[in-house]
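This section describes the prediction task in plain terms. A model, or a person checking by hand, is given the sequence of a single protein chain and must write out its three-dimensional structure as a string of tokens. No templates, partner chains or ligands are provided. The sample shown here is typical of the held-out split.
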Amino acid sequence: MADQAFKVDLSKPLVFQVGHLGEAYDEWVHKPIVSKDTPRFFENDLMEFFTRTPWWVIPLVWLPVVCWFILSSVKVGLPLYHVEAAVFGGIFLWTFAEYILHRFLFHMKTKTYWANTLHYLLHGCHHKHPMDSLRLVFPPAAATILAVPLCSLIKLLSPASYSPALCGGLLFAYVMYDCTHYYLHHGKPLQGLTHDLKRYHLNHHFRVQDKGYGITSSFWDKVFGTLPPSKLVGKGR
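The expected answer:
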């Protein structure tokens, strides 16, 4: 049972503290601290290092993997227009995966020590410290844990010559998602699509956190009825 009087000490490493919040964790983690400071997660310096990821690491690591997947389909003789179609199919699949992961995994309710701890590492830290630039994109190791089952499912359900291009498209869309997500927090778009996406996403962080799960698009929010109230979306931040 959690100590109901437990208070998180923000001056100390956070990860092994948050589990003690118990049922109070969900309320605590959804009260954001707006600061560009990077809080310490672990006492151990090596573990701490692997929780910090600059945004440019994502394209640096994953775009070569994207190219390898797509070229694998080309090498087995898949016609180029089929490769293109498979890549676009993978991109579309990612938009759905982005929504499902964000809504049902990243926003799952937890209350036990280890569930709170794991959730904080997965996504809770981003809601608590939304402007932390080094904990905004997914560390490659964590992204791999999510990518392997997704690509394995694609491989299982699609023809062998198409599955690499589908995976390439999905991973390319993931790279665009993570870079877009970073830009929505730290860029300063004045108008147009990126301005609207920034306003939409910051509403999710600061006004209605159980709506607006799409990052790169509101399409699946419209499909599944999780659009935030229009009056909120219409207000900038």
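For orientation: Confidence is low (pLDDT under 50) at residues 233-237.
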